[in-house]
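USER:
Try writing one entry.

ASSISTANT:
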Amino acid sequence: MMFTYYLRLAWISIIKHWGLSLVMITAIGLGIGASMTTVTVNYLMSANPIPHKSSQLYNVQLDSWDVNEPYNDDGSPPEQLTYGDGTYLMNAKKAFRQNIQAQANAVIEPEGDDALPFMVTARANSADFFTMFDVPFLYGSGWDASSDDNKQQVVVLNNETNQRVFGGENSVGKNIKIGGNYFKVVGVIDYWDPKPRFYDISTGAFNDSEEIFVPFSMIAEEKIGRSGNTNCWKPSGDGFQAFLNSECVWLQFWVELPNAQAKEEYMSFLGAYVEQQKALGRFERPINNRLNNVMEWLEQQQVVADDAIMMMTMSFMFLLVCLLNTVGLLLAKFIGKAPEIGLRQALGASRRTLFAQYIIESACIGIAGGLLGLVFAWLGLQGIASLYGDMLKGLTGLDSTMIVSAIGLAILTSIFAGLYPTWRACNVQPSQQLKSQ
């Protein structure tokens, strides 16, 4: 086949001019490596964490902030809700599913004389959390709504905590001591670590998922310690109950709405609630209720930061510089073959044949550059991982999509870089070349 023949000619040419070929491969590799490093991080940061139902899950925002000063410069309402607003929406049960939640922390006290207490990250949430966010279970399941209503002391553990406390066995039905209180284990989560951590980005969109999960009522019952971001615009008063009754925003509220009609009805419900609160002297700012689905929420909260996008743009500009250098090197290489090209044309080789040969040679250089670029990209991602540590955990790996993209980009860019040099080489006048010889 002619294609195989052209591949053999390309290989011979690359080996014959190995120094020049190595420079071109390295230039393409550096450009691909730099661009794929930033593209991979941005790609993973902006990935849809729950693609099959992200359009049905909505974060709820209400603007209960100070009338004299907006919460955000762009006029958007607080990202979190007050305890009073969240519990009202939860008790109203106007959505198909609803989840009230907040970040928490706790100390687990294992049984045994030699066992030492240890701190864990926790999430206080309602029963629908596990179904809404498709949390996978290794043993058991989440608790039901009656456990929320009856303020039962139940807990769901992640697999690592279950390994640490119970040796990895099925611990459903057993008791575990958390902060001086005994909780009954109802489920053990299999590996679950969505990136971004869309359900709560208030304390870090790329933090790990929590180690234990307990009913939200455990915060009000003071059976577990509350943590996370808290913002207040007026004093809350003394005591924990005064804090719960305050205008401080510190919890997140999500609803699952299966269709557009359900969303419209829930927006109407929110509007009626705010109007009711206005009559009571709250919500003095203009009505600014918002429902954002998962991807809208991630975009609004700028999970992919502007500086990350700028870095990606700069890396593509570096790739362009590398390509321009490759164009110059290919031009020098192909024009240097002018006598050979002129002789082959005189012997009957068509311009199409010559064009195909040299474009294939450019593509071969691109493939080699792409493979080298993958090595550079891997090194770059490892450097980012060592620099940022757990902050970007899970965002510094090359998956199959990125590998294929890198090779494809290298081939396309090298072919593009080879178009002008190949065109110039194929327009050599054979008569002039033969006369000069």
